Amino acid sequence: MQLKYGANPHQPYAALEPLDPATQPLSLLNGNPSFINLLDAVNAWQLVQEAHAATGRVAAASFKHVSPAGAALAEPLPEDLARAYEVQGRELTPAATAYVRARGADPKSSFGDFVALSVVVDVPTARFLKSVISDGIVAPGFEPEALELLKSKKKGNFVVLQADADFVAPARESRELFGLRFTQDRNAHAVSAADLQDVVIGELTDAARDDLLLGMVALKYTQSNSVGYALGGQMIGIGAGQQSRVDCTKLAGAKADVWHLQRHPKVLGLSFASTTRRQERINWRVRYIEGDLTAGERAAFQQVVEGPVEPLSAEEKAEWVAGLTGVSLVSDGFIPFRDNIDHAQRHGVRFIAQPGGSARDAEVQAACAEYGIAMAHTGLRLFHH
Length: 385
Prior knowledge:
Order of helices and strands: EHEEHHEHEHEEEEHEEHHHHHEHEHE
CATH class of the largest domain: Alpha Beta
Number of domains: 3
Distance between the termini: 24 Å
CATH architecture of the largest domain: 3-Layer(aba) Sandwich
Helix content: 25-40%
Structural class: alpha/beta
Shape: globular
Radius of gyration: 21 Å
Number of strands: 14
Largest sheet: 6 strands, mixed
């Protein structure tokens, strides 16, 4: 397959070929994918396929630059989240619900994403996808009408890839960089409930186990270092690619706060002009939550909302975020210091899964005991580069 271009447009030659000509892990049904589109597709497909296998539930992912902006399982939406995600009144099948949740976790980052679904794409899912800014999708199949809808997206340039659900990847994988070939055993460990058996403090609820399993699979395909927060069958904050683990924890926690603040009555109560597009409404809600608008930005905001806008104060934010609880945190490497726990508990974390094995495990466990956090040692590092 000849690709549109490499990682950048000034790298004009880019191609994709199967290692074994007799197998075809991915088939192109529409569009002209770029190098990064295919990297996103390969990682996203593996994530949703493994999340579905680990939990038994339909899974979806929203990928940007080879890390998930969001990942989720099919779970009915409460009314306030349906309003925050702007899907009130839409027909939402399990596939559509999983993707709506995955995209809604970090709507700013999901703009122009690459989508993956663990099941055949149906018409309601295709209709929702048709209405949002996205580059492409990978799934094990497509209903005929859904495929035609997707082929008409982006003036016919929307990338549609069909994955072979029965394909088994080779035991080893290689990449060539700077005249060198790097080869390693593939990370073929299948995340499962067995990875959560060693609970070193507290107890895990059934809901937390599902969230932790989703988090572990999501981080398996997230650029390391990485930390993820999950709640209610969806990732609500992912901190990826940071050199310091506590920075991952802070970044993911900040995203989890913004996700939760989308449900604040003031945010849901913003009334936009009828001419304001969906993505603009979502972007303005996030900017309103984050605050610190310049005078020019406030003037632009006032042009798209109806009536006066009362700012969301720091005190109101803190009070609302304090109500966030039951959150699960997953770390792709061991937690080295208790400062990660100190930060995590500020964002409602009550359950943690991490490899364990730090020289300060006792200190980390003591912090968990102090905050009433349950923790499992998985013994499994999930670095991904």
